[in-house]
Amino acid sequence: MKARFTPWWYFVIIFLIGLLAGGVLEFITERSGVSLLGVPWYILVILFVTGLVILLFAYQVRRYTRGDRKEINPNVAVNALIMSKALSLSCSGLAGWYAGQLVMALPRIQLDYYRTAVIQCASAVVVCLLDVVFGIIGEHWCQRPPEDGPENPSQKGKDPLRSYQPPVAAQEGRDR
Fold this sequence. Notes:
By secondary structure, the protein is mainly alpha-helical. It is built from five helices and no strands. Helix 1 crosses helix 3.
């Protein structure tokens, strides 16, 4: 399996889908008298702490790839990569969701309820964008260096043809 970096436009598309969905849902719920506007503060704390924990897992993988750590469980490394990707993509959608609610609530900011909702949604957008950055950083930290070949950092500056060593069996055959 070969993992690839998440293209930047995935984040933009998911953000725009979230923006549209958040704005449309706020428009519909406003007309029906039910309000789903805003986000509880503890959710923001949970999102931020989750992002930090995933970044910590990815940092452990980074330490291993840089040689600062002797061994790491391969499942931990793969899970750190998967969680980093999931964090960045899901928080991109959530940032769009809360940005859509923010856009719909801004015209009524004079009312206390909407002022509180604007502050909550703006805070949620900031935390979600931080989590997107944490996920992208974590994804890059989970990149393994190439094992062999000219892309390996230990092979930089060396001529691959001059560093060729024939197999041991071939050397023994010449000695006979």
